[in-house]
């Protein structure tokens, strides 16, 4: 089937042949941010009222996706820019930024013309975005795992409630459900990155890659600044989850439904636009 030929082509040229960049970005970020977490945990553990904070594989992953607390604009409270959280997702966007248009100007254009079905090309690119998003986050997780192995940090899935309380600055009213927290770690960041990469693909094909990247950056920054359920980035900040903000936090199920729905909308709208748009006009 032509769709699978196009998809195989994209996985080969757009992922496997660029895997070194996924490894470098994933492992590089993991070591950088994990080192920062280790230094912070050591400094906090030296405070008598805090006590020892245990480092585990699970705690390091949670640290990467903690995000920031709900921001309430105030002259006395400056906005806490979530640089680490933003970089994790924007680097995933950066990896998939230019390949679709480069492919369209090269061998991908020949394949597209021969196939006679623009929908196959578009759906293959969407499938490539999904696999690429998973591949990037997998490299990030493997980077965290490697850091733990190098520095002899326990490879445990345990999420420390005490650590979370120190991060947010207050005590939690109930215990963190380990299984649900891990389900959140495995699902929500992946679904958000898939949506962002699909959105970037659509905007990039219509207006240019830089605009696609800019839209994602603006959406993430707006999510960090404004805690609203219709802004998808909020669901990928654990500090804003219902387990931390019990009375008003983000519910994982709602986030899953929103992100899947938005991704499907992008795929459908992109398919319609791509079918009608003269994408070969430059030639």
UniProtKB/TrEMBL annotation:
Q: Report keywords, A-Z.
A: Membrane, Transmembrane, Transmembrane helix
List the transmembrane segments: 20-43, 83-101, 122-155, 181-203, 210-231, 251-274
UniProt protein name? ABC-2 family transporter protein
